[in-house]
Amino acid sequence: MGPTFAPEELAGRKLGALLDRVTLLAHAAGLDRGFDHQIFASMLGGLNRFPDSMIPFAAEEYRG
After folding, report:
1. What's the pTM value of the predicted model, to 2 decimals?
2. Does the structure show a pLDDT above 50 at 17?
3. What is the pLDDT of residue 58?
C-alpha cells in the first residue's frame, strides 16, 4: 500500500496532477496542429486491451 495523505494534501496532489495533464495536452496541441483531444482520449481508452506485461514500464513509475 502507498502513503496515506490528509484530505487537503490529497486534494492538492490531485489538482496538481490534473493541471500537469492539462499543461501536457496544451503543449502537445501547440506542437501538433492536428492534435485532437477527443482522439487522444479515445486512444487512451483502448489501453485496457493490453496486459500490464506489455506496457514497458512499471505502474509505480507512472503513478510516481
Report:
1. 0.54
2. yes
3. 67
Q: Do residues 25 and 37 touch, judged by C-beta distance below 8 A?
A: yes
Query: Is the pLDDT reported for residue 50 higher than 80?
Result: yes
Q: What is the DSSP string of 4-50?
A: ---HHHHHHHHHHHHHHHHHHHHHHHHH-TT--HHHHHHHHHGGGGS
Q: Is 61 helix (H, G, I), strand (E, B) or coil?
A: helix
Q: What are the φ/ψ torsions at residue 36 (nearest 5 degrees)? A: -125, 120
pLDDT of residue 64: 47
User: Which DSSP letter does residue 53 get?
Assistant: G
CA distance 56 to 58: 7
Residue with the three cell numbers 500537469: 20
Query: For residue 49, what is its C-alpha cell?
Result: 486491451
